[in-house]
Each structure stands twice: as C-alpha cells, then as structure tokens.
Amino acid sequence: MQEIWTEKYRPKVLKDVIGQETIINRLSSLLDKKDLPHCMFTGNAGTGKTTTALAIAQEIFGNQWKGNFLELNASDERGIDTIREKVKDFARTVPIGASFKMIYLDEADSLTKDAQHALRRIMESHSNVCRFILSCNYSSKIIPPIQSRCAIFRFAPLKEENIMQYLRKISESEKLKIDDETLKLIFEVCEGDMRKAVNILQIASAGVVPEEKKKCADLKCATADIIDKHTIYSLASRDPEHTIEMIAVALKGKFQEARKLLAHLLENLSGEDVIKEIHNQAMNLDLANDKKIRLIEKIGECEFRITEGSNPKIQIESLLAQIGIL
Ligand SMILES: Nc1ncnc2c1ncn2[C@@H]1O[C@H](COP(=O)(O)OP(=O)(O)O)[C@@H](O)[C@H]1O
Ligand SMILES: [Mg+2]
User: Which residues form the domain of 139?
Assistant: First the structure.
C-alpha cells in the first residue's frame, strides 16, 4: 500500500519546517538553553503545528523521544477526566535523558471553559515534570489564565512560494511530471493549508487513467501532468465555473434558472462549500460598489445561518432571490 505523503514528507527537524521562520528561530533559541516554557501554537489547519511539536520532541529527546512525548487530542479524549488520568499516568515515570517530558494537546480550544480551568490546574500540578504544548485554531477561545502561562506562537497560512516549493520537492521524489500551472492551482484551492495541498496532489496523481499510465511507463513517471483543473477543483470541493454562472444569472433577475444551477451545485458540494465559493467570486464581480457591499453583507448573513444549522438550499435560494433585486 502506498504511504500517505503527509506523513512520508513531514519534516523531522525544526529547520525543515518551512515558512514559519520567526517561530522556528524563537523556538531554536529556547531549545539552545535546554528549556521550554509551556507553549501555545495557534493557527489554521495544516500550517505546521503538530509537525513543529514533533520536531521539538525529536530535537530535545533524540532517540528517546517516543517515551518522553505524549500526544492527546482534546476533542477525542472523553472529557477532561480522561485527559487528567492520561497525564497522571504519563507523569508517573521519570523522563529519560531529560529534565522534563512533553505533552502535546491538540484542539485545546474544543474544551469547555470549565474543562480549561481544570486543564490549567493539571498543567500547574505537573509543571515540575511536564511541559505542555497546546494547539488550537483560535487563541481567543482559550481562557486568559492559560494564555498567560504559555509562550504563544501564531502559525500563519503558508504562502504561495512555500507551498509550491514543498509540492515540487514531493513531485520530484515521487517522479511525478507536473507543471507549475497545476501546482499553482493546487495552491489556490488549498487556502494556505499544506495538508490539503499535499493530499490533493497525492489523490489527483493517483487518479490518472491506466491507459495514460501505460503510455508513460517507459518514462518511469506517473502522468500527473494530465491532471486537469476539474479534478483539482472537485478534490477541493469547489466549482468556480458554475458558481460564477449562477451568480451572473441571478444578477440578471433570472431566479428560476439560478435555482436550477444551485440544485446542480448542491449535488456535489455542501451548502458551506457553495456559499464560500460565492464569497470568493463576489469580489471579482463587475458591480457598482454600493451593490457589492450589500451583496457581501447578505452573503455574510447567509453563511452565518448555514453554519448555525439552517437548511442550506433554502438559505442560498433566498440569497439568489435577493441578488436579483440588489
Ligand atoms: N510549515 C510547514 N512546513 C513543512 N510542512 C508542513 C508545514 N505545515 C504543514 N506541513 C505539512 O502538512 C501536513 C500537516 O501538518 P501539521 O503540522 O500536522 O499541521 P497542523 O498545523 O494542522 O498541526 C504535514 O504533512 C506537514 O508535513
Ligand atoms: Mg495538528
């Protein structure tokens, strides 16, 4: 079975983590002093939080890192009591070849406020042997007493050159022939999320037609250069072409036709995907400024209702109706 590329190519050392120079420099100088405060890594998915934590563990503990490193996921573990038990068990044995052990708690922002207060106490009562790295998407969801006990590191979405560089390296080592235009498209749909970019590259390059593969066999390469735009868009749950068409039709006041296009989009995409794409396209529309502002406002409201759980079809239809009379 083929290995998952996000694991196969995950950097093992801090200096190989790309695009987060300030963070890596700060961490490296902390590690030079052989110490680490409790840390908080915040930022979007796929920007290197887990990778950085694993690299720190390997740098501090060397070959012994597995015995000194515990990874927990706050949203998997059944409540703070399970976390407390696991931390207690882990802290019971002494660290090997170091003065402390490390606990990486992923998705810490999924804990309730009460659970976070309990976590703060756990961090305190074990701080002589354990350093915590908490990871979360939004630091604002973490209670201030935890924030003030941590060094905070903000992971930014990865830039075009970072993602292109990384995808090129993978393509080379997988002997994939893939052009820059395709890589650029993957960057555009991945929204700074490296995990998403790598997964799209792997799935898209596996999905080439066997006949083309045969043709290419003597070149010893897969035929990723034939990955087309549509494959990438569909892997990223996007359909800009039909979305643009739907908005254009709605702007002309042809509501019934726009509804049909929406029904078609919703066959393959979720309501969230569709409203996000409408938002992506809205800024490029050839519309007077005041109309554009009203449109963005309505998109915001529609998105809010959908994420709060109301029926996406009804909400987007209502948006399309309003677009006709902006
Ligand atoms: N800054 C980065 N440098 C190199 N690879 C990265 C970076 N960010 C993410 N990746 C890659 O994307 C995948 C997910 O990264 P991970 O660190 O688990 O993200 P998260 O921030 O969600 O914890 C891994 O395969 C990793 O190699
Ligand atoms: Mg992670």
Answer: 5-155
CA of 34 to the centre of ligand 1 (A): 24
Instruction: Indicate whether 301 pLDDT > 50.
Output: yes
198 lines ligand 1 (CB under 6 A): yes
Mean pLDDT throughout 227-245?
Answer: 89
89 and 137, same domain (yes or no): yes
Closest ligand to Cα 47:
1
Q: Quick one: 114 and 129 in the same domain? A: yes
Residue 145 and residue 16 share a domain: yes
CA–CA gap between residue 296 and residue 301 (Å, rounded): 9
Domain boundary among 126, 155, 184: 155
Q: Residues lining ligand 2 (ion), CB within 5 A?
A: 50
Q: Is ligand 1 within 6 A of the CB of residue 115?
A: no
Tally Cβ neighbours within 10 Å of residue 320.
24
Does one domain contain both 229 and 255?
no
Q: Are residues 214 and 195 in contact, defined by beta-carbon separation less than 8 angstroms?
A: no
Q: In this model, does residue 211 exceed pLDDT 90?
A: no
- Global pTM value: 0.83
21 and 147 within one domain? yes
Same domain (yes/no): 199, 268 = no
Residue pair 63/171 in contact (Cβ under 8 Å)? The answer is no
**Measured in angstroms, how far is the CA atom of residue 20 from the centroid of ligand 1?**
11
Kindly report which listed range (207-221, 239-253, 266-280, 301-315) carries the lowest average pLDDT score.
Answer: 207-221
What is the Cα 224 distance to its own chain's centre?
Answer: 24
Q: Would you say the CB of residue 271 lies under 6 angstroms from ligand 1?
A: no
Residue in 172, 178, 197, 175 with CA at minimum distance from that of residue 186: 197
Q: Which residue has the higher pLDDT, 57 or 210?
A: 57
Q: Which atom of ligand 1 is nearest to the CA of 19?
A: 1
